[in-house]
């Protein structure tokens, strides 16, 4: 018997919900619809209480130690790339970054804050381990090193770290949620802000979006934004290097080169 049958019984109709782990399912019976997941983080309960993810209905611990969570299945849609410029996105991200409850929970779960130095150190070790000697990658890492003093930030918040438009859900009642929190970290909010702005919003509109978030666009923030965007691009390059995907590697080299050109105009 599968774990979801142990929890719900055989009268529920179960369908896979996709995802990388294969541990998420939709369950339906007599008009009731649930989203089930195995071994979600305890963080989920706080996210639900804060209204950041769809409501948590119940949590059950299995005999083998697995924890099953059930949430209301959201009736709505994923955001489109063009939706990301909305003030509702800025406002929800601000709420997340300012939440002391989320921050305290991640600390209780043992998450240590990420610093620019530690993240860059991890990248450098990965590049050295893979023996990558790519001129654009070398140039990018040199710039990241050079700018380290400029990107230090005293603000440490809960960052989602994957603010792709597919992870934002809008309900039928226009309630916005941000899902898929497996990669959450304690870090500089510019990690989330930077990726979102760079990939979804014209730079000429950054100031307006940041106004909705509650920040002023200045030189230091712009430097932090591009620093983390460049870092994420190198991380993506390394991921595809491990997959030996030549086309994607070439795409990311071009992206990184483009980001470097942008950064050269900041100073």
Provide structural commentary.
With 267 residues, this protein is of the alpha+beta class. The chain folds into 2 domains: 3-73, Phosphorylase Kinase, domain 1 (2-Layer Sandwich); 82-264, Aminoglycoside 3'-phosphotransferase, Chain: A, domain 2 (Alpha-Beta Complex). The chain has helices at 3-8, 43-49, 87-98, 100-108, 116-129, 135-146, 190-200, 206-213, 219-243, 246-264, and strands at 13-16, 24-29, 32-38, 56-61, 67-72, 76-78, 157-159, 168-171, 176-178, 185-187. The model has no long low-confidence stretch (mean pLDDT 91).
Précis, in short:
By secondary structure, the chain is α+β, with helices and mostly antiparallel strands.
User: Looking at CATH, which topology of the largest domain would you report?
Assistant: Aminoglycoside 3'-phosphotransferase, Chain: A, domain 2
- The CATH H-level homologous superfamily of the largest domain: Aminoglycoside phosphotransferase (APH), C-terminal lobe
Described by its quaternary structure, the protein is: single chain
Low-pLDDT segments: none
Instruction: Strand order, main sheet: write it out.
Output: 1-2-3-5-4
Instruction: Note the main sheet.
Output: 5 strands, antiparallel
Q: Which structural category fits the helices and strands? A: alpha+beta
Number of strands: 10
> Helix segment count?
10
Helix and strand pattern: HEEEHEEEHHHHEEEEHHHH
Nearest-angstrom radius of gyration?
Answer: 20 Å
Domain Aminoglycoside phosphotransferase: 17-214
InterPro entries: Aminoglycoside_PTrfase (IPR002575), CcrZ_PhaseVar_Mediator (IPR052077), Kinase-like_dom_sf (IPR011009)
Protein name: Thiamine kinase-like enzyme
Organism: Metabacillus malikii
């Amino acid at each position: 018997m599968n774990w979801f049958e142990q929890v719900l019984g055989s009268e529920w109709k179960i369908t896979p919900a996709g995802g990388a782990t294969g541990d998420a399912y939709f369950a339906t019976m007599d008009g009731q619809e649930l989203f089930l997941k195995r071994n979600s983080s305890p963080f989920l309960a706080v996210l639900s209480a804060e209204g950041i993810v769809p409501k948590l209905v119940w949590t059950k611990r299995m005999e083998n130690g697995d924890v099953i969570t059930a949430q209301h299945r959201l009736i709505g849609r994923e955001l489109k790339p063009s939706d990301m410029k909305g003030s509702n996105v800025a406002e929800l991200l601000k709420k997340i970054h300012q939440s002391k409850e989320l921050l305290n929970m991640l600390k209780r779960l043992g998450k240590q804050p990420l610093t620019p130095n530690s993240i860059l150190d991890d990248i450098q070790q990965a590049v050295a381990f893979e023996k990558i000697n790519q001129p654009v990658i070398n140039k990018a890492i040199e710039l990241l090193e050079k700018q380290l003093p400029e990107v230090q930030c005293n603000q440490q918040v809960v960052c989602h770290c994957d603010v792709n438009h597919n992870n934002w859900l809008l309900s039928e009642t226009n309630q916005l949620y941000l899902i898929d929190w497996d990669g959450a970290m304690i870090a500089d909010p510019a990690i989330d802000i930077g990726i979102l702005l760079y990939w979804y919003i014209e730079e000429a509109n950054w100031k307006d979006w940041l106004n909705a978030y509650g920040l002023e666009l200045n030189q230091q923030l712009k430097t932090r934004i591009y620093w983390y965007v460049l870092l994420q691009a190198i991380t993506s390059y390394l991921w595809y290097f491990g997959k030996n995907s030549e086309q994607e590697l070439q795409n990311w080299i071009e992206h990184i080169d483009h980001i470097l050109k942008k950064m050269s105009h900041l100073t």
